[in-house]
Amino acid sequence: MPDDPEEGMLSWDETVFRDEHVFEIDYVPETFKHRESQLQSLKYALRPAVRGARPLNTIVSGPPGTGKTTAVQKLFGELSAETDVRTVRVNCQVDSTRYAVFSRIFQGIFDYEPPSSGISFKKLFGQITDRLVEDEEVLVVALDDVNYLFYENEASDTLYSLLRAHEAHSGARIGVIVISSDLSLDVIDELDTRVQSVFRPEEVYFPVYDENDIVDILRERARRGFHDGVVGAPELDRVAELTAEKGDLRVGIDLLRRAGLNAEMRASRTVSVEDVNEAYDKSKYVHLSRSLRGLSESEQALVRVIAEHNGEQAGTVYDAFHEETDLGYTRYSEIINKLDQLGVIEATYADVGGRGRSRSLTLAYDPEAVLTRL
């Protein structure tokens, strides 16, 4: 009897995934490998909170996709079992002003958002500290992607309010974890001296995973996320190789998911190397997509203008940007610096025909890839 051509093919109601959530950006794995020393350092800093004291403030730094947020979320999950410890993680890419940060903290404590208008920062701050003192709770705040607060010149005011809370309201106990993926940012040096005098943090560094670590982590994700036999050793090795090139584990996790979707598109029960290679064209832009999602309308407008004038001088780009947005040169310059720090563009100084030095502005990615993700 001839082989059934349909054998090994998915039917319309079948899937290669056991649990697709395993490949989501907010998934916290049960087993968190190759970060034991960093977890121990964070536990050391947080341990006083369990005893009712203020925890040690901490700076968590390292390149994107090295496990910083996952480590903090994992420990926050453990701390939430302690009835007298409250934890709040703030995504500063979304909440990039002092008021927005404290609104998110308010929501974390009261389980509802504060009024969108009509409440001053002082009153908002007072309600937070009153509740902490009343409930005799210690608050630990993680400022994730704190670099966005620096881009908006909001970091010093935000940290000052958090670190001085016990002086404004006796009995308030707040500890701060700042998480940064911008290796060019020196958090301490960029803060006001008034904040530097009270901010003496522990420092925990997360290095890039090596390729063996990447294979181990991705194998575990594949085991939990796919049905048995969906991803073989050659395919996993290819995913790890491409992930190591980018140095960002999130690329590999996204790549596994997209490769699985590609296999399903072929109605195949197994992922092929071709599925992986095809998926990489999208997965390699994970960091770009994340950066672009956090931009305001005027910042996105400037990215579009630079795409149209890629490699041209800052003055020429400004003329086109001003015509589109009517914004002034000061705000334009601030956005240029932010996009440069985010790695979306490269702003390079060069001599301009005896007229001094000027910046040329170039996208750090293929212009078409940027425009399709805005």
Quick gist of this model?
By secondary structure, this protein is of the alpha/beta class. It contains 18 helices and 7 strands. Residues 1-6 have low confidence and may be disordered.
Distance between the termini: 54 Å
Task: Kindly report the spatial arrangement of strands forming the biggest sheet.
Answer: 2-3-4-1-5
Class of secondary structure makeup: alpha/beta
Oligomeric grouping of the chains: single chain
Shape descriptor:
globular
Which spans have pLDDT < 50 for at least 5 consecutive residues?
Answer: 1-6
Per DSSP, the total helix count is 18
Q: What does the largest sheet look like? A: 5 strands, parallel
Share of helix, binned: 40-55%
Question: What is the tally of beta strands?
Answer: 7
Radius of gyration based on Cα positions: 24 Å
Mean pLDDT: 92
Share of β-strand residues: 5-15%
Encode the helix/strand succession as letters.
HEHEHHEHHHEHHEHHHHHHHHEEH
Report on the architecture of this protein.
It is a single chain. This protein has helices at 36-50, 68-79, 98-110, 121-135, 147-151, 155-163, 165-168, 187-190, 193-196, 211-225, 233-246, 249-265, 273-283, 286-293, 297-308, 314-325, 329-342, 367-371; strands spanning 58-61, 85-91, 138-144, 173-180, 202-205, 345-351, 357-363. The chain is an alpha/beta fold and 374 residues long. Helix 1 runs parallel beside helix 2 (68-79) and helix 10 (211-225) packs across helix 12 (249-265). It is globular, with a radius of gyration of 24 Å. It starts with 35 loop residues before the first helix and ends with a helix.
